[in-house]
Predict the structure.
Amino acid sequence: MATIDEDLNQIEKDIRQLKIEYDQYFGGGRKRAPTEIEWRIDLLIKRYNERGGELKSAQRFRFNNLTQTYAKYKDIFRKKTKQKEEGTIQRHFGAAAREIEAARAREHGKEPAKEQGKKHSNQDIAATAAGDAKGFRMVCSEPERETEKVDQLYQAFLQAKQLAGEHTGKLSRSSFNEFVMKKTKELQKQKNCKDVEYVVETVEGQVKLKALVKS
């Protein structure tokens, strides 16, 4: 029988595969929607919704992030499937990621089209992290609630590594989220503080992620 972590890994893997196969479906590369993968993901999510008490805090944080991502993709899949059936589909599935970011912006009361409250694009964040001596900075106290901040930190770290030519194949959003949550709680306990500042900076061609205590 699979462990909880193995099941969470399977959910993450299946979500990635689902995106690929829906891309093929909307692009005309396959005749049927990948309902079998959806069924498998739904089954695992239902299992751990019912057995939530068995999950440790880090596992719960990861599970919540996966279910939120999956729910957003499912909404996009549903809308695009309807467009496909009606013959009105216009955009390539690659826009799905942008639609998810727009949904996140709407949840925080922002206008996604204008993005008035957002001064940097992902490229701007990466350039700041890679080129500015001060790097990209983010302060948080409850990473399990401040998912947008953690997402921005992840994007800055990932893209800074890509710009520096570093390998990112083993870097995943879920493992990064788990690291930030653990590190924040660890420093809060050790230093008796509330806020932890994370800094992405490039030192001598190598990208570093630092966690600092805010006084």
The chain has two domains: 4-107, 122-213. The helical segments are 4-26, 35-50, 57-86, 96-107, 122-131, 147-163, 173-191. The mean pLDDT is 78.
